[in-house]
Design brief:
The chain is an all-alpha fold. The protein has 10 helices and no strands. It is globular, with a radius of gyration of 20 Å.
Length: 266
């Protein structure tokens, strides 16, 4: 693994870790009843994720360009396999850290409500008080959240949409760059088709998945659903997200071939 690929591996891990830990912030918002404040803190997580995503694409694109120009095609697929593995590992780690970060975010929401300053909140996180809070909040996922998962509050279609959405957003940029190896002459066209794949993922997320999660958040706040049901629903989303990153491994090459076909047809 080259230095550039290793750096992209770390960035990919950060992106998917933050995306998974966002569920912990949802739980914290519901538990505290401060959903609007939790959304403000969620935007901070999105900022970190988007910043990592900004560097991920160009770094990997440069690596691909150098390999194509140098004629180093052998083993190129495994660079992308490693990056998809980073997404899976990050989702797994993030799922295990959800209980810990749910407690941390609950404290962060309370602190933010008092100081009303994101920079002050971030500075407080690295103080002895913040580090002690991290130690006290450390927890492992409850076994019941896994053994009692149910589709009653999470229709099967939402779970399937989450698997598909995650797989598309995970493989979108990678498959478009890998398409450059399959047809170097059209690599620029192929690379510019990644927003199409990501767009399909975004449609599923914002039309089906996120509204359902928001409605259930309101149900918990209104007493129409229990906190335990909400946690099990989030666990189901994390598990389906993990399945989506595994599905991305299967979609990498077929998606790249489809991109090449479309690029030739334009």
């Amino acid at each position: 693994m080259s230095t550039q690929v290793a750096l992209v591996f770390v960035l990919t891990f950060i992106i998917h870790l933050i995306s998974t830990l966002a569920f912990a912030l949802r739980i914290a918002g519901v538990r505290t009843g401060r959903i609007a404040v939790s959304l403000a803190l969620f935007n901070v997580l999105v900022l970190v994720s988007r910043t990592s995503n900004t560097f991920q694409g160009p770094l990997l694109a440069k690596h691909v360009e150098r390999n194509i120009i140098g004629g180093r095609m052998e083993g190129a697929e495994w660079d992308f396999r490693w990056l998809l593995l980073a997404a899976t590992l990050a989702t797994l780690v993030g799922g295990l850290l959800v209980p810990t970060f749910q407690r941390l975010f609950t404290r962060a929401i309370g602190t933010f409500s008092v100081h009303r300053s994101v920079p002050r909140l971030l500075l407080r996180a690295v103080t002895p008080v913040g580090l002690r809070a991290l130690r006290e909040a450390t927890s492992i996922p409850a076994k019941e959240n896994l053994t009692r998962m149910s589709l009653r509050r999470a229709p099967l279609r939402i779970v399937v949409y989450n698997v598909v959405s995650t797989s598309l957003i995970t493989v979108g940029v990678l498959s478009s760059l890998y398409a450059g190896y399959l047809n170097p002459e059209l690599r620029v066209t192929a690379n510019n088709m990644s927003p199409v794949i990501n767009g399909l993922s975004t449609i599923l997320l914002f039309i089906y998945i996120d509204p359902h999660l928001s409605i259930m958040s309101d149900d918990v706040a209104g007493g129409r659903a229990t906190d335990a049901e909400y946690r099990r629903f989030v666990t189901l989303l994390v598990v389906s997200r993990l399945a989506g990153t595994l599905l991305a491994q299967l979609l990498l090459v077929p998606a790249a071939r489809v991109i090449v076909f479309v690029a030739r047809s334009l």
